Amino acid sequence: MRRWRESALALLLLAFPVALSAAPVLDLRGFADDSGGIMILETGNVIDPYFTLQALLLAQENGLDISAYASKWITWLTARQRLDGSFDRFCRTGPIWLGCREADADDALLAIWLKFLDTMPAQRDTHPAWRKSHDAASKTLQTLFDKKRGVYLVSPTFQHGLFMDNLEVWSYQSTRAGPAANRDAQKFSQAIRNTFWDAQSRRFLVSTQPEQKTVTPAFYPDHVAQIFPLLVDFPLLSTNSGSYYRAWMKQHRALWLKQVSNDYAWGLIAYVAMKQNDKTSAQCWLREALPYQKTGHWTVTDEVVAQILQSKGLKPAAANSACN
User: CB within 8 A of 103, min separation 6: which ones?
Assistant: First the structure.
């Protein structure tokens, strides 16, 4: 009987290898500390909650096991939430993390915090501190809504709207269930299009600030902003997503792959390439960017993107492959 059970188990494992295999485990050694905080750079002493949340959400959405970090991170951040529901950026002195700078943008950070909490509804609803944090963040986010334009403003201090921030808020809203939520998300997507699309230049403006129509475009934020809709599956593009993506890559691919040498790796674009089934560009990114791991050019988001690509079987392009 024992031998029969062992044989049956072996046959079951052969028949269902995918179902029974464990999810790849996210590895953030060097970025995470024992307190639960997760830094933006392995080489630094700064935590920007936006980048940590962005990285954890990407990992979770792509099947990586984030359980070693998720609850500890939520506990860490809820303990440091401001009374108005917003968050700071944090700097470390010895073992102590203290708020040292305001968030770069309250609207995007609040939205992805809410989105992250909503991926764990049971824990959110049974942990009073999580529920309190969710309610406070939701109320604060609503205070940033510009009723005139129908989009969100950066913060109480900076009264303008940013295109990429609003896409982050839309991405959060589009995950909420129910007919009313769907109508709100559709209305919001149209407001984003109406506010930021510039028909004359046929591009999305990065900001509602008037000077954006005349500023000379740079890789960031201008060129990055054009591909950002594909990251969150924003539907109101000037053409279908495939054509839109190919046009961006044709114009900016070489410039993107060079960024890591003097700026950041911009792994998010490699992630978009993977979503668009452009394995070649994703593999070129791995080849060009991986040598910069453990440097100031490599963020926690880049680390997560690299692990996602590798978990899906992608390897760096060969040294003799043309990538430019």
Answer: 48, 49, 50, 86, 87, 88, 89, 109, 155
